[in-house]
Amino acid sequence: MFAKKSLGQNFLSDLETARKVVEAGGITRDTPVLEIGPGRGFLTRFLVDAGARITAVEKDRELAALLPGMFPGAPLNVIEADFLELDLAPLAALRPVVVGNLPYYAAMPILMKVLEHAGTWPRLVFMFQLEVARRLTASAGTPDYGVPTAVVSLTHSASIVRRISPGAFFPRPKVESALVRFLPLDQPLLDRPADRLAFGDFVAASFRFRRKKGSNALSLGTGLDPATAAAHMERLGLDPGARLEVLSPTDLVRLWKGIAASAR
Length: 264
What we know:
Blueprint: E1 11-12, H1 15-24, E2 32-36, H2 42-49, E3 53-58, H3 61-70, E4 76-80, H4 89-92, E5 97-101, H5 107-115, E6 124-129, H6 130-136, H7 147-152, E7 156-164, E8 169-170, E9 177-184, H8 193-207, H9 214-222, H10 226-235, H11 249-262
Parallel strand pairs: 2-3, 2-5, 3-4, 5-6
Antiparallel strand pairs: 1-8, 6-9, 7-9
């Protein structure tokens, strides 16, 4: 079956990457797994062989119809749906490991939707464009550090497990990819989804001016006057002259909390 450009389909065809997904996800017999975008079932085969109990969400109607017949007798439930429009609450209740070869155009929206239920997934293992993977796993003070890093760091530690060449997919994408594993933090930096959303808005607004010193970036991003923004940073022992990109996610959360509290 030909890949459909409209769905951003680049089917996985690399044995070692599929094995690494199973290993990184800690997937063994009877592990509940949610697979996003199984496509032609290449990764699904490895999940079946590992003995996992699989729920697969596939947007492509033809592929969704074919998948059950490819694995007769396997504990595989295929849901034909656009993942971004799906109610995840019933699936989250199963506490599955979540895996997927995510389409580049929808990878970040899919990840953000999954993180709305951050506390329910034991592990996440996803394929991203390498550039995106670097942003998700960056350290404070590096060029790749930004809003995605800070938001993911609220609930998970993220690491690149494996770089993936274009030849691992069909058709070949024009860029490299990477396999990223997300492990839940024992103590999330923010528990409430509403707080995480508000924090994300705060960081997105302030990081628009990331080349400016911290107090000025805060002022432009939040509407505070520069002196007040500087006072908030100083109160927390942060240098108002430092760029926001050097602040750890923990410090950014402290800063957001301090500003939010003063606005009440």
